[in-house]
Amino acid sequence: MNVLRIIGIAIVTIGIQWLLIQDLPLTEFGNPYIYLWAFFIIPFRTSKATTYIIAFVIGSILDSLEQSGGSHTIACLLTVAAKPSVENFLYGFKEENSTDTLSSLTLAKFLPVASIIVLVHHGVLFSVENSGFSQFSALGLRILVSTLSTVGLLTIIHLLLSKRYAA
Description:
The model has no long low-confidence stretch (mean pLDDT 83). This protein is an all-alpha fold. Helices cover 67% and strands 0% of the residues. The chain has a single domain, classed as Arp2/3 complex 21 kDa subunit ARPC3 (Orthogonal Bundle), CATH 1.10.1760.
């Protein structure tokens, strides 16, 4: 999968988010970010430099839309930095020439990886947006609600788009 296709998928998910999800009543407590799907379709063999460029572009697009001052870019970069460690810790399945992605995993293997990656992303994003850990309970609630809603939506996307579940 080439870089332009991944960025294209990210732009589509950002568009869907802005057209359908952004104004849901849930956003008071947290916001699901389905653009993280773009990170799940990056093949394992993709170079770190390419992965960081993709994360920077996606984060910058969101920062410009939300005028969030770089918090999405920081969260995206730290998420892709943590992603290989999470994958290796849980499954140790990264082969150098593999074209597999997280989206090709079974649901039982997808959920733990997705949950941890989304939790890392949301923890960084909302902590940076909050300028630290002041109002810890509100921050914790926002991270929890956003993580649960994002993982739920990503699971639906995984079930709909994964070749493993196609009829």
